[in-house]
Amino acid sequence: MTPEALIDIFREALAVIVMMVTVIVVPGLIVGLIVAVFQAATSINEQTLSFLPRLIVTLLALMIAGHWLVRTMMDFFIEMVNQIPQVVG
């Protein structure tokens, strides 16, 4: 195995991870920002007001993008398994 092959595999793995995490985290960040602005404007300091909407949006993002996330993971895994003979031999 050459260092270049290992770096390519690592780069691909990081790209897949970043894509998958972004799909889950970004909607929660946007909702958290909206709730924070609302709390600052109204001086409401309730912790559950910021937590519950982010939780719901994150769960919705997982429900909506779940199929795509699993398919992306499976495609990456299949690609890695298919590359085993090239990397080892």
Automatic annotation (TrEMBL):
Swiss-Prot/TrEMBL keywords: Bacterial flagellum, Cell membrane, Cell projection, Cilium, Flagellum, Membrane, Transmembrane, Transmembrane helix
Membrane topology per record: Multi-pass membrane protein
Places the protein is found: Cell membrane; Bacterial flagellum basal body
Transmembrane segments: 12-39, 51-70
Broad class of the protein's primary localization: membrane
Coiled-coil region: none
InterPro entries associated with the record: Bac_export_3, FliQ
Chain's role: Role in flagellar biosynthesis.
PANTHER family: FLAGELLAR BIOSYNTHETIC PROTEIN FLIQ
Family statement: Belongs to the FliQ/MopD/SpaQ family.
Protein name: Flagellar biosynthetic protein FliQ
Gene (name only): fliQ
